[in-house]
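User: Can you recover a sequence for this backbone? Please restate the input before giving your answer.

Assistant: Of course. Working from this structure:
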């Protein structure tokens, strides 16, 4: 993303950067346990068990292991036993690992975290006579409902941001693979369940900064994502899942814990029960493709959940695949919620089910692309940016089309997703920055009413400004960019007035 556009949103950047500082502090919390000991030549070519107690309520265990005297050719290998069985052996190739019910560091097995006595298993292939090696194992317990990033080696596939520094990051929030109904062509030409790495490869080839894998109702792909993340280290892999019910589909991001999807059953009687679980886990929910029809061909594809409390809905997938306009678009559904007084972020998702689609195929990986302003390229920061509405959608998933839209009134300033309180008679000054959209036409959308903003864009970088006088009432104002034939190219989130 252009640094010029990043400078335009310096104000919003400071807000999000502050969030980043808080998140960094959360990742540096103290370990729950520190297991210390000494290895001597008496332990050479033996195995040392180091017991520790796992309390009830723990859903993830992360360990950071270190020892002294490496320079004297001391070697201590690392493994893990739970209260019932062997959970893994990384030998000398890893000094840190995490295990949970859904995923684990490669070399270790995912599975239930049962309370009781667990053991670090230390193998000692070598230690010289007279040498004493002191080890320390820092143990972190992740508990149910903990926020992503609240533990040093927690649910995030890689500790710390993939990329430091605030900016605009481009990604795809809705994709499927072999862990649900994604398929592609095998080496011999057969249609087969498509392995996850093909989707990640396609996203890397598109130059995306982040992706979310959202297989239907399952969490099995989280383990595969953890294995791929260290290799695809220029891209953030966000674990998600598509909660697929008979009355609607919704993506959930920000937790690796189970969320029961059996809506209208005795387990999840109402949508509010499901939202309760999402909120307990500090997760983010996005209503998917609400403009699609629902019925026998695709049960629950459209949104028909009774008595949906939209005050508790964070995000709506306004553009699904190639459905930016027309009867299958989710934009009218989203805008109606805005008119009803709800501040809900619009995103896009390819809903890709075949990683081999050509890049210009609607529903190819990255078509559309959701572009998020965040404090850094980390799971917490990207989800915080989405929650705040600091988002626009590139409907055709290009690498460089971009907008920024800001408003100012008196001393107040706002960017996409932000709100200002503007009394009657006060002037609001809007600034639209357009990047790499020469030939496109800009339009203001105010409470759903469209107003053209001048002639076609002439340059790769263009700024347009306009003023409006507040009537003191509630309004939302956002921007679209359209091609000469009217096709939607970029959808912006609103600036909110008096919400």
């Amino acid at each position: 993303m252009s640094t010029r556009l990043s400078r335009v949103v310096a104000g919003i950047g400071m807000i999000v950067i502050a969030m980043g500082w808080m998140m960094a502090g959360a990742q540096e919390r103290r370990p729950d346990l520190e297991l210390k000991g000494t290895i001597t030549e008496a332990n050479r070519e033996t195995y040392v068990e180091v017991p520790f107690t796992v309390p009830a309520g723990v859903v993830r265990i992360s360990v950071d292991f270190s020892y002294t005297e490496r320079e004297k050719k001391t070697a201590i290998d690392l493994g893990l036993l739970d209260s019932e069985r062997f959970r893994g052996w990384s030998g000398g190739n890893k000094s840190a690992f995490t295990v949970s019910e859904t995923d684990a560091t490669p070399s270790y097995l995912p599975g239930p975290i049962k309370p009781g006595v667990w053991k670090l298993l230390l193998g000692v292939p070598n230690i010289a006579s007279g040498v004493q090696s002191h080890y320390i194992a820092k143990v972190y317990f992740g508990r149910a409902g903990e926020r992503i990033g609240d533990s040093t080696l927690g649910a995030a596939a890689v500790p710390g941001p993939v990329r430091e520094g605030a900016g605009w990051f481009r990604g795809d929030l809705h994709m499927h693979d072999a862990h649900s109904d994604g398929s592609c062509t095998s080496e011999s030409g057969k249609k087969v369940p498509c392995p996850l790495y093909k989707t990640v490869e396609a996203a890397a080839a598109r130059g995306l900064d982040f992706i979310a894998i959202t297989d239907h109702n399952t969490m099995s792909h989280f383990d595969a994502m953890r294995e791929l993340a260290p290799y695809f280290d220029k891209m953030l892999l966000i674990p998600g899942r598509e909660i697929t019910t008979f009355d609607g589909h919704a993506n959930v991001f920000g937790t690796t814990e189970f969320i029961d999807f059996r809506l209208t059953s005795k387990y999840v009687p109402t949508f509010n029960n499901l939202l309760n679980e999402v909120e307990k886990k500090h997760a983010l929910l996005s209503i998917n493709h609400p403009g699609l029809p629902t019925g026998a061909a695709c049960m629950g594809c459209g949104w028909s959940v009774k008595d949906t409390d939209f005050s508790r809905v964070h995000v709506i997938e306004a553009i699904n695949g190639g459905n930016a306009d027309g009867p299958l678009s989710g934009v009218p559904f989203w805008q109606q919620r805005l008119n009803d007084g709800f501040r809900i972020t619009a995103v896009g998702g390819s809903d890709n089910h075949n990683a081999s689609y050509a890049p210009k195929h609607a529903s190819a990986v990255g078509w559309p692309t959701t572009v998020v302003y965040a404090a850094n390229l980390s799971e917490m920061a990207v989800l915080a940016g989405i929650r705040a509405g600091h988002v626009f959608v590139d409907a055709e998933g290009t690498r460089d089309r971009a907008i920024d839209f800001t408003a100012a009134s008196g001393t107040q300033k706002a960017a996409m997703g932000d709100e200002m309180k503007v009394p009657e008679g006060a002037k609001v000054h809007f600034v639209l920055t357009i990047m790499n959209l020469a030939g496109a036409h800009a339009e203001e959308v105010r409470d759903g009413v469209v107003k053209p903003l001048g002639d076609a864009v002439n340059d790769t970088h263009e700024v347009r400004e306009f003023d409006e006088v507040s009537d003191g009432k509630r309004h939302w104002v956002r921007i679209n960019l359209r091609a000469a034939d009217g096709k939607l190219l970029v959808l912006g989130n609103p600036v909110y007035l008096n919400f």
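That completes the design. The radius of gyration is 25 Å.
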